[in-house]
Amino acid sequence: LGRIFGECDIMGDGDITKRELIKAIKRNGDIASFFNLPRKFRKDDGSMDMLDEKFKNIDKDDDGRIVWEEFVSFYAVHCKPRTSEIDDATTNTLGMIFGKC
After folding, report:
1. For the segment 15-49, what is each residue's pLDDT rounded down to a tens digit?
2. What is the 3-state secondary structure (H, E, C) of 35-71?
3. Distance, CA of 42 to CA of 4 (rounded, Å)
4. Rg, the chain, Cα only
5. Other CB atoms closer than 10 Å to residue 14's CB: what's the count?
6. Tally of CB atoms within 10 A around 76
């Protein structure tokens, strides 16, 4: 989780803005898979709506920034991998395991 959060926190200021999330997803397919979002966003195909909904679900205080606590809380509620998947996490990409989120 820390690696994904760190890759999304492009500015390194301890939170993730929607702009940072979009950049991270475009740059890294594993991050797109982790969030179960496409790598490209367009207004006309619903992908921006998907991003907005996902971001809003994680950003509980609605301040436009995802902090570590919100990120972990979302993961704990919505992305519960089976124990066998956790063991495989050391060899598989997070995107393959947590793409259901």
Report:
1. 999 999 999 999 999 999 999 999 999 889 999 99
2. CCCCCCCCHHHCHHHHHHHHHHHHCCCCCCEEEHHHH
3. 23
4. 13
5. 10
6. 10
